[in-house]
Specification:
This protein is 43% helix and 18% strand. The protein has a six-stranded mixed β-sheet with strand order 1-6-5-2-4-3, with helices on both faces. It has 178 residues and is of the alpha/beta class. The chain binds ligand AR6. The site of ligand AR6 has 25 residues, from strand 2 and helix 2.
């Protein structure tokens, strides 16, 4: 069980600075940029990213699409679209899990060895932080347990509070299973 945790790291950083195989973008259905982490990624990657995104035809909520990373230090960007929080009875949990699931499937299919996730949907889309973190970890654990994804997974937090939530959940989970 402990091996599961070796693959997961919680980092407090700006995701655009990370030198990993892929960073995940918390985008919107248009894939044409926005605020938050999406805005930061588009600004740092440069206008060629927007040009490539224009060719993708948008992205459904819960799905993921991959592009090049242009001026970023990472190799690829996996754009995913999280659900807007509407109180919890609009399949938000299922759609958020699907973001992590489809992003990790792309990482597996493309033999990526490191991927960094922001806290999808917890900013402009208002998903409750702790609930979102639990869904992220559950979905990531499933991928690690079934052995399909063997690389590193960075949980990239911009706010110290998000890093604390992940650290606490990981500690509780480790304690439960030991
Ligand atoms: N590095 C890492 N995390 C960041 C960064 C950064 N540079 N900047 C913000 N965050 P949000 P959402 C964190 O709002 O809720 C956009 O307009 C932030 O603290 O970026 O999925 C899109 O176009 C929070 O924890 O994404 C969509 O319209 C997390 O990233 C909409 O926002 C997600 O916050 C998507 O909303």
């Amino acid at each position: 069980m402990k091996d599961t945790y070796k693959q997961i790291q919680v980092v407090l950083d700006d995701i655009t600075r990370l030198n990993v195989d892929a960073i995940v973008n918390a985008a919107n259905n248009s894939l044409l940029g926005g605020g938050g982490v999406d805005g930061a990624i588009h600004r740092a990657a440069g206008k060629e990213l927007l040009e490539e995104c224009r060719t993708l035809g948008g992205c459904a909520t819960g799905e993921s699409k991959m592009t090049k990373a242009y001026k970023l230090p990472c190799k690829k960007i996996i754009h995913t679209v999280g659900p807007i929080w509407k109180g919890g009875d609009q399949r938000e949990a299922q759609l958020l899990a699907s973001c992590y699931d489809t992003a990790l499937k792309l990482a597996e299919e493309n033999q990526l060895t490191s991927i960094a996730f922001p806290c999808i949907s917890t900013g402009v889309y208002h998903y409750p932080r702790k609930e979102a973190a639990k869904i992220a970890l559950e979905t990531i654990f499933k991928h690690i347990r079934n052995g399909a994804y063997k690389g590193d997974i960075l949980l990239c937090c911009f706010l110290p509070e998000d890093a604390q939530i992940y650290e606490q959940l990981l500690k509780e989970h480790l304690y439960d299973k030991s």
